[in-house]
């Protein structure tokens, strides 16, 4: 059976995009490869809302999150976490010998600007990593609220994890003065997993130049230097077929569907599903900061998730249980990528059916 | 025009393999994902000639080479280089703060066991990385000659870079007592780039457990621990569609074509092309150690490579210039993956035509 994914990533990918993989493999040192990279840059700049440079990595988003904190922290890093993926970012720092603190929020809450200000006053941070959209709790941080605090510290490199938001909601990197936005292919961009993308501001480049022990494969400065010096190509063989598919899909996102339409579609799907979820269960988290790309639902009916998941599975649908400590208390539904309002209506119809019989 | 790649990687991929990407994306936390990983393990064990565990990384081979040296060196590392990719491995160590020495050979020569013995006596090495097949010079190291030297040092973790040999020639990891064999998807395995594979011996696992600062994304021990504890799944979202294609192709390699036939085919193509090259140019390197997967040809006719490459390009063929310092003096032809003797005959026929008119 063809399974439809309502996961917080990976997402179902349009068949036109999958068909791109049928094209014969091209060499990664060809002019064609350079052109693909250039096209990806232009469209990712629009998606991130930046004029800064764009890097592509053959890795998951975790790889670039590790690369960012390692390449750009000289003194001390702070992670503003909304849940599991913020916890992971702190770990990525510590595992590379970087002194990394974490500012946690209560589950379901966004980062409090006042608390951020308090923390930044205490120690000499030069890297701040913020989870934009937390896949484990369905919360979207408000970058506008955090900007006035972070911009007081001119030395800080500000990086954001937009793995589950870029392409589904505006990022507006340059408007907020963000230096590095990181995302993955398999979420709102509607691609298969295997690639990740990062913007890399001039300020971040300058900073990385002053830092030693940045490693190699995930070193953002190496990717930047090499691609500038080698006509937008990369030091190691990149997942070139995945890049061909990315070029095709990013062009669709920006020039066919259009970003405004895409963001509106995500919001419409989100509102529709959250209404349904509040009628039947309860949406987890502070209403002011709910994510437009994923909904974390409190399992108020105490359904056995495995049984629920099996019922969906029989009907060709995959959903996700809660993440980490919320595994049993919540479940998660992704409405991102190229999923449509029609898909969501079909999904809730099936959910209604299951609820009648479970 | 559909271009046929005679590169030392990436290689042209069979259309049946590319078609695997058309399958709907599956979740990486599903039972299906676990089954795919298990199947990849079984077939990669046969390709590497080992009973040890197999790890899959969403990265190029460079990523796992960095992971290996960082995860398994506590004291000092030595790289036995045959050319550019050995130089790179040393750099990967140094860029991670690891004291890494290099034993170079004259271009076109294999590693001399006597010289290796001399070097190992001098310092307290606990990691030795050896290039098995050097893509830049077309030389294959003789692991049998090196085994008696390395096995004298029981503490050493022995890793080999089989990026351009695994799947094209026997590796026999367990026969030689190798701990880590590393390869990439886009060479002899006949897959698109984006994945790399490593074996990871029990001895290497034990060693990595004693080492701090291994990082995260490329940490072999993390991949090992996580996949053992989570039913053969991975900590970060892997390139799951690429893994579906890998499962299909590795099954073809091991169970349809068969490894012996595959190795024989590579040797036949290599002998055929080297004969042709010696008649028309001259094969670079010591005859005793020539690679069965790639031929480095001395440009004895002083052809302008760009012009030569353009002529091939017009006929739908991509070849590669020399690498690094040999860029102008040599060119390279890959005969690996699912290329056939028929392809090589067609290739030399076209080359003959070009030579008449250039």
UniProtKB/TrEMBL annotation, chains A, B:
Keywords: Aminotransferase, Pyridoxal phosphate, Transferase
Start and end residues of each Aminotransferase class V domain: 27-323
Modified positions (N6-(pyridoxal phosphate)lysine) in chain numbering: 187
Cofactor(s) this protein cannot do without: pyridoxal 5'-phosphate
Molecular function GO labels: alanine-glyoxylate transaminase activity; L-serine-pyruvate transaminase activity
InterPro entries the UniProt entry points to: Aminotrans_V_dom, PyrdxlP-dep_Trfase, PyrdxlP-dep_Trfase_major, PyrdxlP-dep_Trfase_small, SP_NH2Trfase/AEP_transaminase
Keyword Aminoacyl-tRNA synthetase: no
GO biological process: glycine biosynthetic process, by transamination of glyoxylate
Domain of life of the source: Bacteria
Binding site for substrate: 332
UniProt-listed SUPFAM superfamilies: PLP-dependent transferases (SSF53383)
Family statement drawn from the similarity comment of this UniProt entry: Belongs to the class-V pyridoxal-phosphate-dependent aminotransferase family.
Identification of the protein by name: Alanine--glyoxylate aminotransferase family protein
Origin species: Peptoniphilus faecalis
